[in-house]
Structure formats: C-alpha cells, structure tokens
Amino acid sequence: MTTQARSDAIPSLPGLGTTWYERGARYWSRRVWTAVLFLLVLAFFCYIALMLYLGVPRSDLPPTVRTVWDWTQAVASAVAVVRGWVRQRRDHHKKLLAPPTPQQMWEAKRGEGGRAPGLARAAVLPLLIAAPVLPAIVAWGVGWLVATLTVHEYPSEAGARLWLEAQRTA
Known about the structure:
The chain is mostly helical. The protein has helices spanning 3-9, 19-22, 25-53, 56-59, 63-97, 102-122, 124-129, 134-149, 155-169.
C-alpha cells in the first residue's frame, strides 16, 4: 500500500493530525521540538525561581540559618522532582486505561485554553508569596513535565487508535 493511500485512510484528527498513526520522522521531530520548547520555557521558569529565591527572603537570614535553609531547599527540590515524576506517570497510566476519544480530547483542550489566561494572572500573587519555597515548586514541575515528555504514547493517541479501530470495524 502506498503512503498516499495509507494517509487517505487515516483521518486528520484535531490536535493530532495524521502523524500519530505511523509515528515516522515527522511525528518524532514534532515530539522532539515540543520537548525542546517546553524545556527552554522550563529553564526560564527555573531561572526566575532561583532569582526570586536568592532575593530578599533569603538575604535577610543569618548565615547559619541561610545554610540550613539552602540545604532544606535542595532536599525539598530533589524530593519534589521525584514526586512530580511519579504523579505524572500514575496519571498517565490511569489515562491509558480509559483513553479519551478524539472528540473528548479536543473538548478538554478547548476547555483548558479558556481558563489559562485567568489562571496565569491569578497565580502572580501566590507566586510572590511562595518565593521562599519556589525552587521546590518548580522542581515538582520539572519532574512532572519531563515525565510527560518521555512517555512512549500519549493517552490522546491511544484513544485515537481505539476510536479508529472502532470506526474500521463498524
């Protein structure tokens, strides 16, 4: 079967396109570029978190307390990375047990997009209040995001495969 005939049989799904089915070079290049982009954004957030942490709250501490606080932050950040990773992997496995259909995935993605700007604005004040523990919070996000980017198959792709099989058998 030719590539053209094969791509005609695979419908282009919103948010997935057609590359998810064959998982060829275009699919993996998209996944790699997505990972690079997210890791660059994450590096920026880590930098901001470190700069906020090194600012006023830490500089007001006596040297002995500052050393203890820094070590506490380092341990808390290491634990947070692992907890973020584990949390994301558990969520991923749970979603793979009942993957969403393409329609459910698209509706969820549209719902998240409408809330994002408001949530981003609402997070500014708690972010400044949380500056002393921000490295651990960002470390949790690092673990969560790296676990998200390193899965073999996303739940949306698994759901699309099941949906496509159901469409072919019907």
